[in-house]
Amino acid sequence: MENYYSNSEYKSIDFILNSYSSEIFDGITVLMRPVVGGMDYLRSVHQAYKFQKEMTKISEWSPETREKLLNALTDVVAGKTINESVIPELEAKLSELDEINETLDRLSQVSRTLSPYNIRTVLTLSLNKLKGKITSIRSEINLKMWDQNENVNELLVLDQSFYLIQELTNQALKVVSSSKIPGYTELWNGIIFSILYIEAFHRGKVTFEELQDYISELNLYCYNEESSLKKHDAVFEVLA
């Protein structure tokens, strides 16, 4: 398979992102279509049959198809800041990928048949699964920091990125548990943007300096979103 990664200069970060590439891909898929993270629950309430065909197709995507998806989505965030709304552009980019879009569009349509309670449960499960993936990545980062052959500064930057994504995810969980659904929020946009931005760095589309600037922006973004949560009842939409 063709190797898209070109940031081999940053070997410590590269090791982590290469080692957890499947988790990152799964996290991005769950964010774009949260129902992917809720299939076990939907099976228990006899709703999984609606999504089974599409889920089977996703599980059978070739490495080349996965690369095509990630390459397209990371193109969107490169050169942007976290304060820019990227979800409409991400969806537009998906629509250009025929063999991928057909499956994801079908998931979108069927997701709308779920009850509000089921939607909220799926969103909660998806966010918690994302937190679990990030926790695993951060644990590996912290272990690598003890290795004298690793670049600690690189690893600190990467760890801070994932820590702040965890914070946004925690805020999103508060929204889902206390709010009615629907309505896109800045929180979900920030989570999607952030994971794609890290992957864009991995692919050489974002410089290390830009990644460091992004962390400063993300710090402020997390603070602003936390303040907003305390003042307003945010509302969520099924990201489908």
**Beta-strand segment tally:** 0
Q: How do the helices and strands follow one another from N- to C-terminus? A: HHHHHHHHHHH
Q: Which structural class fits the helix and strand makeup?
A: mainly alpha
Shape: globular
C-alpha termini separation: 30 Å
Task: Tell me what portion of residues adopts beta-strand conformation.
Answer: under 5%
Q: What level of helicity do the residues show?
A: over 70%
Summarize the structure in short:
This protein is an all-alpha fold and 240 residues long. Helices cover 71% and strands 0% of the residues.
Provide tags for this entry.
240 residues; disordered C terminus; mainly alpha; globular; 11 helices
Can you tell me about this structure?
By secondary structure, the chain is an all-alpha fold. The protein is globular. 71% of the residues lie in helices and 0% in strands. It contains eleven helices and no strands.
SSE diagram, text form:
Layout: H1 11-19, H2 21-32, H3 39-44, H4 52-59, H5 63-77, H6 87-95, H7 98-111, H8 116-144, H9 152-178, H10 186-202, H11 208-231
Helix pairs in contact: 2-8, 2-10, 4-7, 5-6, 5-10, 8-9, 9-10, 9-11, 10-11
